[in-house]
Amino acid sequence: MEESRVEAIEWSFDALYKVKEMPSWFRELLTAFSNEKRLIGHGVFFSLFSGKWLPEQESWLRHLERTAAEFRFDHITEHFGFMTGKDFHHGAPLNIPYTTTTLNIGRDRLKRIYEACRRPVGLENLAFSYSLDEVKRHGTFLEQLLEPVNGFIILDLHNLYCQLRNFDISFDEMIALYPLDRVREIHISGGSWEDSAVAPNRSIRRDTHDDAVPPEVFQLLEMTIAKCPHLKYVVLEQLGNGLVTETSKRCFYNDFLQMEDIVRKNSNESNTPDPFLPLFPLSTGPVVEDMTLYQQQLELSSILESSASYAEAMHVLTQSSLANSDWRIEQWEPYMIETAVKIAQKWKK
């Protein structure tokens, strides 16, 4: 900031739910970038695919509506998946079955986000999957979701890196499965490795946002930029709890410089009109819900949050309503179920 290197900022506008009053300096910062049309909004807690429409989701939309009236966002984005946990702000964003039901729910929610902000709307690709089949279907499902609002994708390259490493798939194969003409924003970040007890020879890559950007993610950035004709933003993410030492702060600064250099070398300025606004007037009828899906989500959340091990989680899953269903739990990798248990229990705390 002091060196005037930051060209835009992304604000997780729903993450201040514990703050009663926004500090004046922070409001001034947001206003300055808003006035220059260089402020973008990123949601965390909407839980796009919850089978039941929740009061918290209605409140989230009203908050977005008020916030978008105060600040001029260039676009608004949310995370893919649904949040585990009974408390709206305590849950892990996990995958959902790719079905007509979830497609219709996701489309309904995206329309409502657009109605609240009247700005381009996008979704971030997921870092977590249970199976290689899910990984391969994710890009197409994202494109189908975004079609009615003519939305865009945040291509999070660390999330992509997690999928590449956790499922031993090549970058070329993976990137060919995404509609790159819908990428308006790229994220880069760091994460962590976690050993698996059920697969002793494997370490799981986790999207924990608490460490420096790996060299492999910078390589992905260099390989990806030219493939995204409508790319407008590249964002460096890191949680504050990963920036407590002088070394970590210096690494973050150096990561920014490296990102800046890659972006500058690959810059392709375009004056074409914004391609990511609805092509036709949108209409929303009654909220789309599916109580069977909602009950399965509650059941899955409970299993993940209470199981002491992969073996226990798998035993209970095979006795649950998710067995022999669209969730395809029979295809889930044991080491990813083990990881889901750890994620859910971490967020619950």
Q: Which secondary-structure class do the elements indicate? A: alpha/beta
- Tell me the number of structural domains: 1
The number of helices is: 11
Low-confidence stretches: none
Strand content: 5-15%
- In CATH, the architecture is Alpha-Beta Barrel
Biggest sheet: strand arrangement: 1-2-3-6-7-8-11
Overall average pLDDT: 93
Largest sheet: 7 strands, parallel
Strand runs, count: 11
H/E element order: EHEHEEEHEHEHHEEEHEHHHH
CATH topology: TIM Barrel
Using only C-alpha atoms, the radius of gyration works out to 20 Å
Estimate the global geometry from the Cα principal axes.
Answer: globular
In the CATH scheme, the class would be Alpha Beta
Name of the CATH homologous superfamily: Divalent-metal-dependent TIM barrel enzymes
Q: What share of residues is helical?
A: 40-55%
Distance between the termini: 34 Å
Protein name: DUF692 family protein
Pfam families: MbnB_TglH_ChrH
Organism: Chitinophaga oryziterrae
Description:
This is DUF692 family protein. Pfam families: MbnB_TglH_ChrH. It comes from Chitinophaga oryziterrae. By secondary structure, this protein is an alpha/beta fold. It has one domain (9-289): Alpha-Beta Barrel (TIM Barrel), CATH 3.20.20.150. Helices cover 42% and strands 12% of the residues. It contains 11 helices and 11 strands. It has helices spanning 24-35, 55-70, 100-117, 132-146, 157-167, 171-175, 215-224, 246-265, 291-306, 310-318, 334-348, and strands spanning 9-11, 39-42, 76-79, 82-83, 93-94, 121-124, 152-156, 183-188, 192-195, 203-206, 233-236. A 7-stranded parallel β-sheet has the order 1-2-3-6-7-8-11. It has a two-stranded antiparallel ribbon with strand order 4-5. β9 and β10 (203-206) form a beta hairpin.
